């Protein structure tokens, strides 16, 4: 199943695994056209700027590829607090 990471450049972290979600959940969390495919390597989170915006990364394994998705990493800008609230509604 796809993995969702929260990335906070100001914290100089490398991305924190936040959830394991289904492909259907991915569609609920963010529109695919709001994501940018960044390839098969996890994108750099911290590049020396303390003013970078928080974002999320969705990881899809080759064995999970379905329809319009491809294996690798998708980056998207997100208010991580709001995204976390959406995740909590999925858990209910």
Description:
The chain is an alpha+beta fold and 92 residues long. 21% of the residues lie in helices and 28% in strands. The radius of gyration is 13 Å and the shape is globular. A 5-stranded antiparallel β-sheet has the order 2-1-4-5-3, with helices on one face. It has helices spanning 23-29, 80-91, and strands at 3-7, 16-20, 36-39, 55-60, 72-77. The chain has one domain. It is built from 2 helices and 5 strands, in the order ββαβββα.
Task: Itemize the secondary structure elements and their pairings.
Layout: E1 3-7, E2 16-20, H1 23-29, E3 36-39, E4 55-60, E5 72-77, H2 80-91
Antiparallel strand pairs: 1-2, 1-4, 3-5, 4-5
Helix content: 10-25%
The figure for the number of domains is: 1
Stretches where pLDDT falls below 50 for ≥5 residues?
none
- Head-to-tail CA distance between termini: 18 Å
Strand/helix succession: EEHEEEH
Mean pLDDT: 86
Name the strands of the widest sheet in spatial order. Answer: 2-1-4-5-3
How would a crystallographer describe the biggest sheet?
5 strands, antiparallel
Number of helices: 2
Distinctive features:
28% strand; alpha+beta; 92 residues; globular; five-stranded antiparallel sheet
Task: Write a compact overview of the structure shown.
21% of the residues lie in helices and 28% in strands. The protein is of the alpha+beta class and 92 residues long. The protein is globular and about 35 Å long.
């Amino acid at each position: 199943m796809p993995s969702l990471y929260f990335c906070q450049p100001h914290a100089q972290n490398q991305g924190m695994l936040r959830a394991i979600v289904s492909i259907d959940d991915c569609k609920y969390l963010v529109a695919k056209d709001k994501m940018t495919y960044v390839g098969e390597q996890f994108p750099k989170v911290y590049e020396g700027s303390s003013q970078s915006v928080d974002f999320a990364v969705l990881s899809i394994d080759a064995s999970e590829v379905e329809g319009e998705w491809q294996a690798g990493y998708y980056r998207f800008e997100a208010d991580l607090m709001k995204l976390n609230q959406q995740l909590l509604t999925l858990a209910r």
